[in-house]
Amino acid sequence: MKILLVEDDVNLREVVQRSLEKERYIVEVAPDFRTGIQKIEDYTYDCILLDIMLPDGNGLELLEQLKEMRKRENVIIISAKDSLEDKVLGLELGADDYLPKPFHLAELNARIKSVIRRNQQNGEITIKYGNIEVFPDKYRVQVDGKELDLNRKEYDILVYFMNRPGRLVNKNTMAESVWGDHIDQVDNFDFIYAQIKNLRKHLKEAGATPEVKAVYGLGYKMTMD
Question: Which ranges does the entry annotate as DNA-binding region (predicted)?
């Protein structure tokens, strides 16, 4: 899962980033409005944590532009401005939640899991496809009720596909979500192909009914065809 944190307070930004990385999220940061817009235009995120009061713009304006781009990222506003007007406007512009500062990191993590579960998993605690079941809160995978042991990146790739069953997945977009935005600077994707190859092997050996199939020249698709 990949998160964008748009926050100008360097101390809070570092604390939140470290906390979320411990929860196994890929965290990208933007210290101002301009950087936030650039990242949103160029990349896709599972959740955006958005401060309203930025040094070069208003976070609500960024939320408006996100809506105009027709992007569907989950958005949680985190702001010291705890006014009813800002809450209502933020939610009307498409934010999924509003968390006033100061906040506990445990509550922020719970809010992130909640909006992702609500919007990507239809409110379910687990993700199911065929005979595969993923338990995101515990980072566990079962095939036909039996535990499947995966390394971290294999697990992250599986979750990415499980949230998009039957959909063609562009390899670049998937790689950005699992490895972070800096992935576009690498010379080749050989290490990614190796992780996908290992994941496919583990699923086959476990008797999984879904299969990750390569679509030549385009990407991959998890399907039971």
Answer: 124-224
Full-model pTM: 0.80
CA distance 213 to 222: 6
Give the C-alpha separation, 54 to 51, whole Å.
7
Q: What angle do CA 180, 186, 190 make, to 5 degrees?
A: 95
Distance CA 52, CA 87 (A): 11
Place of tokens 């498409």: 94
End-to-end CA, the chain = 26
Residue with tokens 């992130």: 112
- 152: amino acid identity, one letter: R
pLDDT tens profile 9-45: 999 999 999 999 999 999 999 999 999 999 999 888 9
3-class secondary-structure state, position 95: coil
Domains present along the chain, CATH in parentheses: 2-120 (3.40.50.2300), 127-223 (1.10.10.10)
